[in-house]
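Summary for the steering committee. One of the milestones for this cycle was to obtain a three-dimensional model of the protein with coenzyme A bound, which we needed before selecting residues for the alanine scan. The sequence and ligand used are listed below.
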Amino acid sequence: MLALTGRILPASNRAPSANLGWRASLGSVTGVEIRTARSEDAEAIRAIYNAEVVGSTVTFDLVERSPAEHDEWMAQHSGVYALVVAEEGGEVIGFASVSPYRPRPAYSTTVEDSVYVAPAHRGHGVGKALLTGLVDRARMHGFHSVIARIVGDHDASIALHRSCGFALVGTEREIGRKFGRWLDVDLMQLLL
Ligand SMILES: CC(C)(COP(=O)(O)OP(=O)(O)OC[C@H]1O[C@@H](n2cnc3c(N)ncnc32)[C@H](O)[C@@H]1OP(=O)(O)O)[C@@H](O)C(=O)NCCC(=O)NCCS
């Protein structure tokens, strides 16, 4: 994964915001809390993510994330690169994160988002609550632009991002391959 060393960091990385606490309960679905992830959420997040790795083309990972790899990923998302979860009745039912977009330093004001909701909880506004909370944090952390890279024909993710203000800015043709198929990637962007 990408290291912060040598990159231009947003202002919030130099002076951590004291506002994270009151933002932590941002969310708009009854009974669902959107909050900053904690280390004890790791396994639930890993389970939601790995189900998509092996079962769908929405992530271009081909192999499930191990506990050690996931711990490293959690650590990389404990600072300026936000990681939020949706919690309902004590259960983590979804998560959303931002990650560095590209390694070269001039890209450091742009982040790439990810949003995952457990299958049983889709279609009830949880994805939108997660993405709204995530974008709010990305803005607060000083980023300028959020990019979503969405596998071709993924209507749910396109609708989710559109409903949070993202616009389609392009399509990369047959840029990936998984399950023996060529995959397009649609790019959606939100300027903060
Ligand atoms: C994409 C995903 C996060 C959406 O989460 P969700 O909780 O089901 O979405 P929401 O209920 O918050 O819906 C958000 C918007 O998308 C629309 N939407 C949701 N599912 C849809 C579908 N299958 N087809 C069309 N529109 C859909 C909703 O109508 C809503 O639009 P509105 O705000 O204009 O009313 C969820 O399907 C998921 O986790 N999929 C697997 C992981 C994944 O693909 N992540 C994205 C990778 S790019």
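Key point for the committee: The domain at 23-191 is CATH 3.40.630.30 (Aminopeptidase).
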